[in-house]
Amino acid sequence: MSEFVEVAQISDVMEGSIRKVLAGNIPILLTRVNSTFYATELLCPHLAADLSSGTLHGTVLTCPMHESQFDVRDGHVVRWTSLTGIKLAYALKARPPRPLRCFPVRVEGGRVLAAVPQ
What we know:
The chain is mostly beta strands. The chain has one domain (2-108): Rieske [2Fe-2S] iron-sulphur domain (Rieske Iron-sulfur Protein), CATH 2.102.10. Helices cover 8% and strands 45% of the residues. It contains one helix and eleven strands; from the N terminus they run E-E-E-E-E-E-E-E-H-E-E-E. Strands 2-3-4-9 form a four-stranded antiparallel beta sheet, with no helix packed on it. The longest helix is centred in the last third of the chain and has 10 residues, at 85-94. It starts with a strand and ends with a strand.
């Protein structure tokens, strides 16, 4: 069961930024794009890199490890890895693409709340 918990104040998260926050006791990633907040799992589903060290261009989040890319709006895979050729073929077999888990977010007053399964 998921329940909304406060993860930040609106003023804590600048436009176009990435921020590691806690939803209860679970670390998640909070982003803000065009004044909309998105919450996703913190670790990349490719090889578990900390996505708070990644980059955000529009709604596309890029992992700092192998440059996997995900859309923070719904978690779909934009690019699974930056590898090419035989390395890419092996990587796809070893770890097939998986979307980034996303969590519901709402804003109440000046607070940002996310619902993450506990």
